Amino acid sequence: MLYLFSAIILIAGYLIGSVNAAVIISKTFYKSDIRTHGSGNAGTTNMLRTFGKKAAAGTFLIDLLKGVFAALLGMLIMKLLSFDSTTGAVCGAIGAILGHNWPIYFSFKGGKGVLTSFAVLLVIMPIPSLICLGVFIVVVLITRYVSLGSMLGAFALPFLVYFLGDNLFIESGFTMYFILSVFVAALLIARHHANIVRLVKGTESKLFSGKKKDEK
Questions:
Q1: Which carries the bigger pLDDT value, residue 208 or residue 130?
Q2: Hey, how many other C-beta atoms are within 10 angstroms of the C-beta on 32?
Q3: How far apart are the two ends of the chain, measured CA to CA in Å?
Q4: What is the pLDDT of residue 213?
Q5: CB contact at 8 A, 139 and 148
Q6: Is residue 87 part of a domain?
Q7: DSSP label at 42?
Q8: Could you give the CA distance from residue 65 to residue 82 in angstroms, rounded to a whole number?
């Protein structure tokens, strides 16, 4: 039964994550698909550069909330069924991240999942997540590369989870959380492959540079 409900939570998380705010907002309010602008990525940074601060703020909020909701829903369902809530949180988290990246409602073409990943991790492991946020902010402030900040923040996550130890977690879920952190870091960095190429070539857009390449 645990595997069955884990699968159900994973699917539910995926469906929640598939609600892509960037696509919905751009089509509804600007009559244009964000995926046809800039780098074609359905994410907050591309929304900021293409449609402005209000569009980006709406995208940011929805992507954040859907991640939080998916993780909390998984935890709640497992607790109600008297199972380990760690499993529910992780399944909901993975589902939401996969849904954001490959949304079933929008031809499986979504964003890179930076905000949604941060949201689910903030629910599950807040201290490592906030430290990663700090890494992201420092890197972006220094370099103005959102992509570089995202990747370095993601890269730091597994190390933080490992070295800070399972004393950070209420339940005995350290192993699952560490595996999740590796999964998130690997996926986020892989999803930034085009940004890595541009960074190496020196053609990556900087934040507020006015260019239309997206890092997020």
A1: 130
A2: 12
A3: 37
A4: 43
A5: yes
A6: yes
A7: -
A8: 26
